[in-house]
Write a structure and sequence with these properties.
Oligomer: single chain
Radius of gyration: 21 Å
Structural class: mainly alpha
Number of strands: 0
């Protein structure tokens, strides 16, 4: 058995190594011309990664306010960053400095809005407080 990996708490370093090895093995099989099982190995590795890394429904509502912040914060960040990146893609030329500007602006928007969500300043990112109506967002 592989080293102990606690899947629920997010310790996935051993899993990450396994996924990299699986993808590397699939690429080596493809370069040899051995295409049998390539899709199955790749899909199995991807399903394992998604099953471990994606959030799941929990048995209790403990920590629900934090999950709400993560979700709505990412929605707000993407709603601002993607159209901005599209506009920059149309306006700024495709050169190394232009690409650097696009990357810096895109990541800055994600960082600023992520911080605002963390602070509860964006809609629906305030913490859920016991005794307070959560619909008031």
């Amino acid at each position: 058995m592989s080293p102990s990996v606690t899947l629920r708490t997010g310790t996935v370093s051993a899993l990450s190594v396994g996924l990299v090895a699986a993808f590397d093995d699939a690429q080596a099989a493809a370069t040899r011309g051995d295409d049998v099982g390539l899709r199955r190995r790749r899909d199995a590795a991807l399903e394992t990664a998604l099953g471990v890394l994606l959030p799941r429904v929990k048995r209790s509502t403990k920590g629900e306010g934090h999950e709400r912040r993560y979700f709505y914060g990412s929605v707000w960040a993407v709603c601002w960053a993607q159209p901005t990146l599209w506009l920059m893609w149309k306006v700024i030329p495709r050169t190394r400095p232009g690409d650097t500007v696009k990357l810096v602006v895109f990541l800055s928007i994600l960082a600023v809005l992520g911080n605002l969500a963390r602070l509860g300043r964006l809609p629906r990112t305030r913490p859920i407080v016991p005794g307070e109506i959560a619909v008031s967002d």
